[in-house]
Amino acid sequence: MVQAQGRALPTAGGPVTAPPFALPAVHFAAALIWLVLSAGLLVWLAPRLAAGRVFDPPVFALVHSLMLGVVGSAIFGTLQQFVPGGLGVPLRSVRLGFVGFWLLQLGVVLLVLGFLGWRGWAQGLGWLAILAAVGAVSRNVLRARRHSVNGKLVGLYISVAHSALGVGMAVAFARIGETLGWWQVDRMALVSAHALLGAVGFGLLSVMGVGSRMLPTFLMGPGDDTRWLHWQLGLSSTALLVYSGGAVLTEGWLMRSGGWLLMLAAVPTLMLPWRWFARRRRPLDGALWQVASSMLALAAATLVGLLLLLGDPYRFNRWAALLVALVAGCLVVLVVGVMAKILPHLSYINLVRSMPGFAALGSPNALLRDDWQRVSAICLGAGWSLLVIALLAEHAAGARAAAALWALGTGLVVLNTARMYVVGRRPARTAAPAIVSN
Q1: At residue 1, does pLDDT exceed 50?
Q2: Could you tell me the pTM of the whole model?
Q3: Lower Cβ count inside 10 Å, N or C end of the chain?
């Protein structure tokens, strides 16, 4: 990819230079690579998930490939573009951004291989690399909370999300110590706290905070959601603290209390996207259908969480269904939809002079085929929903078929993105027309 010079962006606090296109681009490229790998792992492991074998090492590899490889790479790339452009706060260092990127990729590779081969030393080194990556990204973006003129609440979301990720990594180190025989802990309690801190604390809070600015813009709707956002952040962070405290202290009543607080936090969490979509002033294109599907997955995750609270918490197939709905259904599909809105515009702005095919198409909205996006939205949405149903029913064959459908949707996403750059390299007179999104 061609590295473009930074552009001066108008902000309330004065012009801020955006990072070079290469910084978010490499993050998004890595997210797509991890998406392909994760899809293959999900198809392979779907029958184990239906059987409730959530503690199998390859399942850990799958979850971290999705959560850190796909969602983590996409979030870090988005943040380092959004903080200068959306919040008006420059990055401390572009070089530090690239260092954080490579540390994150190294860490995820070590972690996934460490789980697949069940090597504690690889897992430990992987977490250390990821910890360093989080430190690098945090130094680049967390000062947005203090210095942003009109985005302090979003900056607070980002800060809390990074804190949750840090606590989640501390819990992971405690679990690794238990695996190596250094101490004794309640493995299930710590693993569940680690999963919720990662998926809800880091993933969901990051996308809700940044999404509170991005999604109303994409939908051309009002963004007057401050009160709902305060309630969502306060309830979610309190719930995670209570649940994690109960897991560390092995106090079941505290964990259950944290679980019910998470159910209460689901009210503003679900109300916010409802407000965004209900008050939109534009029709939905393929990317926004993916975002809508991700919000339905969030509602499904809430229902599965309610089943766990009201029933047996040791029904591990329900935990598998919860993670599928929350990670593969909500977070992954959401970042796929958001990337489909961000990446074509960034690519067009930065590469139009070197990509004759882009110039021939004449609009960033024409770079991705909208019909492919819509079909991928159908495959992803049907895939995660059928997979959740199959896991709850403990149906191994149905789970694998649903996972294959979800994988087909991810394949269309990756092919559509690759096609964009193939078309861009064609001479202007032969650039193929694309179906334009709304």
Answers
A1: no
A2: 0.90
A3: C
